[in-house]
Design goal:
121 residues, alpha+beta, 2 domains, four-stranded mixed β-sheet, 4 helices, 23% helix
């Protein structure tokens, strides 16, 4: 984990303006990673965290965000829906309310094609 993102950017000769970057978080079966991506891809991607022992959990992602001082920089986060759900604190697996925007009931299969409006969270 990189504890000094600004220092890393300085070493790489890159002017770090947080508004120009977004934080990509992803995991696979074998790793958890966080990478800074430049908006417009004019600058190289900067890996800021990587682990082969951490699983994709809220606690691990929160630890990474704290270590890279996310609260200071407030980059936009881009990730797959699973990561977004974890960061929003939703339960994993086959959940009843799996949408982080509304109360869409994934188990109400009789309503899936009839009900088009679901209450907001």
């Amino acid at each position: 984990v990189c504890f000094d993102v600004t220092g890393l950017m300085d070493e790489l000769g890159i002017n770090h303006t947080p508004d120009e970057w977004r934080l990509f978080i992803d995991s696979s079966k074998y790793s958890l990673k966080a990478v800074l991506l430049h908006n417009g891809n004019k600058k190289p991607s900067i890996p800021v965290a990587y682990s082969v022992i951490m699983k994709e959990t809220y606690d691990n992602m929160a630890a990474i965000l704290k270590a890279i001082q996310y609260d200071e920089y407030k980059w936009q986060i881009c990730a797959d829906f699973k990561v977004v759900a974890i960061l929003m604190g939703l339960q994993g697996g086959y959940t009843k309310y799996c949408c982080f925007i509304c109360l869409w009931d994934s188990r109400a299969s009789d309503k899936h094609y009839q009900q088009k409006e679901w209450p907001k969270r």
